[in-house]
């Protein structure tokens, strides 16, 4: 009994040591070094540009034993997985659970529409579960084109992103929300920029000068609803 308990304690110490080492480790994104936790928006003009920036980030995470959680358009799963495999990210990562790829219907649009609070709860669930399973860092990538679908709630995209700033700092995670500039309007892009502390633009990572604190931004988004309530 004492031997088993000693082995368990040893494994716990090893796990704790791995976690500390990972927390001290910096992350590479778009050729720059960043320090998690961080929440970034990434704008791209093409799929090619997107993959050029994100694949090295994903591959580094898999090689270092990080959890990878991706949300994609399910209709493009085959193409997406082929890109990962061509980049050297094997299917073994999926088998072990290190890599998890979900379609929008199992994430942002899980109830059949966009419920920002349900999605925030899912983010907490995934990041907490990864931590409990011993992943010291989670690399989260989400294709945000779900917000272009004709679904109720998608108008709360930027408010959701603002609220995400309350969640991400609680975990050792890098959360990247990706946007195709050809598909989002200028007004949407501005709101997205205001809700992310870090931005990837033109393949370059930078502190976002347009970022607004979530407290202020959420209040601003809710003002029309507040006015309507008193009308």
Note the topology.
Layout: H1 2-24, E1 27-29, E2 32-34, E3 38-44, H2 47-63, E4 67-72, H3 77-86, H4 92-96, E5 99-103, H5 116-132, E6 138-143, H6 157-167, E7 173-180, H7 186-194, E8 198-201, E9 204-207, H8 214-230
Parallel strand pairs: 3-7, 3-8, 4-5, 4-6, 6-7
Antiparallel strand pairs: 1-2, 8-9
Helix pairs in contact: 5-6, 6-7, 6-8
Order of helices and strands: HEEEHEHHEHEHEHEEH
Strand residues, percent: 15-25%
Radius of gyration: 19 Å
What structural class is derived from the secondary structure elements? alpha/beta
CATH topology: Rossmann fold
State the helix count: 8
Q: How many β-strands, per DSSP?
A: 9
What is the helical fraction, as a range of percent? 40-55%
Q: How many domain regions?
A: 1
Just give the CATH class: Alpha Beta
Q: Give the mean pLDDT.
A: 89
Low-confidence stretches: 12-20, 226-231
CATH architecture: 3-Layer(aba) Sandwich
> How far is the N terminus from the C terminus?
70 Å
Largest sheet: 7 strands, mixed
Strand order of the largest sheet: 5-4-6-7-3-8-9
What is the CATH superfamily?
A: P-loop containing nucleotide triphosphate hydrolases
Q: Tell me, what's the shape?
A: globular
């Amino acid at each position: 009994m004492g031997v088993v308990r000693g082995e368990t304690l040893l494994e716990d110490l090893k796990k704790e040591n791995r976690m500390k080492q990972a927390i001290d480790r910096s992350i590479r994104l778009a050729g720059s070094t960043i320090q998690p936790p961080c929440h970034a928006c990434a704008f791209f003009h093409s799929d090619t540009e997107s993959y050029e920036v994100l694949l090295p980030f994903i591959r580094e995470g898999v090689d270092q034993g990080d959890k990878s959680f991706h949300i994609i358009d399910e209709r493009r799963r085959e193409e997406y997985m082929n890109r990962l495999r061509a980049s050297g990210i094997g299917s073994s990562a999926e088998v072990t659970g290190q890599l998890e790829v979900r379609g929008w219907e199992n994430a942002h649009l899980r109830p059949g529409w966009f419920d920002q609070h349900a999605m925030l709860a899912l983010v907490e669930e995934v990041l907490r579960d990864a931590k409990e399973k011993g992943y010291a860092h989670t690399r989260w990538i989400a294709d945000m084109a779900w917000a272009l679908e004709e679904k109720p709630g998608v108008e709360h995209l930027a408010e959701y992103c603002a609220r995400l700033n309350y969640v991400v700092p609680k975990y050792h995670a890098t959360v990247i929300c990706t946007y195709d500039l050809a598909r989002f309007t200028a007004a949407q892009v501005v709101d997205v920029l205001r809700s992310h502390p870090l931005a990837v633009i033109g393949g370059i990572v930078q502190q976002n000068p347009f970022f607004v604190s979530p407290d202020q931004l959420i209040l601003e988004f809710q003002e029309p609803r507040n006015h309507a309530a008193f009308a």
